[in-house]
Amino acid sequence: MKSIVIAIDGPAASGKGTLARRLAGAFNLPYLDTGLLYRAVARRVLDHGADPADAEAATEQARTLNRVDLERDDLRTKEVDLAASAVASIAPVRAALLDFQRDFAQVSGAVLDGRDIGTIVFPKADVKLFITASLDVRAERRFAERKAQGVATTLEAVRADLAARDEADRTRAAAPLRPARDAHRLDTSTLDADHAFAAAAALVNQALSKG
Ligand code: CDP
Ligand code: CDP
């Protein structure tokens, strides 16, 4: 199979990761969850007792990030959600993470998901998808995940956290969350993961057949 880059962007809990993993499996491509990079930087800043909004501290952690930092199992907490969004608004943090993301796809192509893959990281990606779902649906999904993890929270609290993070991601100056001009938009509000995959796979096949 030709090595291609598939860029998947969208707000939190829209189903990007689930879709990206399935496309990577089906098209035999490596997969990178770029949110993990920002989460790992945030985790390290918090571990150092620094403020995630402190540009100097966050940039230092981004520049010295290691692959093993991405394998930690404490990157998906509520505290890290918000801290990740804070460090992600700092332009030098984003710049420090660019090469890693681009190098990842160098040899065999890749599927990457995040907020700025189709706009900034891979503006010439072979296929760009922008995944959305209503805030209520996304809150239900993330709440169900948190409940399954045994986290004590409420649907209202999860919805408020998602809304705050989306707003911050959309309105920041550095690489704001927005669809690339040539992105295919996919609203998964009423699509389960199988149907979302089928729709996305059809778009990828179309792009492959055009060469
Ligand atoms: O899994 P979820 O969609 O909740 O979040 P994530 O993809 O792990 O991303 C966590 C945070 O990292 C986001 O709220 C963004 O602020 C930031 N991020 C980003 O700015 N750019 C990316 N390419 C990926 C994540
Ligand atoms: O990566 P992102 O934060 O955008 O979302 P995710 O972690 O892939 O998906 C959040 C939750 O929604 C997961 O529990 C999925 O099983 C579920 N879901 C989905 O991913 N896609 C759908 N079309 C419907 C539900």
Automatic annotation (TrEMBL):
In alphabetical order, the GO MF annotations are: kinase activity
Identify the residues that the record assigns to the Cytidylate kinase domain, covering every copy. 6-202
- Which residues are involved in binding ATP? G10, P11, A12, A13, S14, G15, K16, G17, T18
In short, the EC number is 2.7.4.25
Q: Which Pfam families match?
A: Cytidylate_kin (PF02224)
The protein's matches in InterPro entries, at most eight in alphabetical order, are given as: Cytidylate_kin, Cytidylate_kinase_dom, P-loop_NTPase
Q: Which domain of life is it from?
A: Bacteria
- Enzymatic reactions: CMP + ATP = CDP + ADP; dCMP + ATP = dCDP + ADP
Q: Which Gene3D superfamilies match?
A: P-loop containing nucleotide triphosphate hydrolases (3.40.50.300)
The protein's predominant localisation is cytoplasm
Transmembrane segments annotated in the record for this chain: none
User: Sorted alphabetically, which keywords does the UniProt record give?
Assistant: ATP-binding, Cytoplasm, Kinase, Nucleotide-binding, Transferase
Family per record: Belongs to the cytidylate kinase family. Type 1 subfamily.
Protein known as: Cytidylate kinase
Q: Which organism is it from?
A: Acidiphilium iwatense
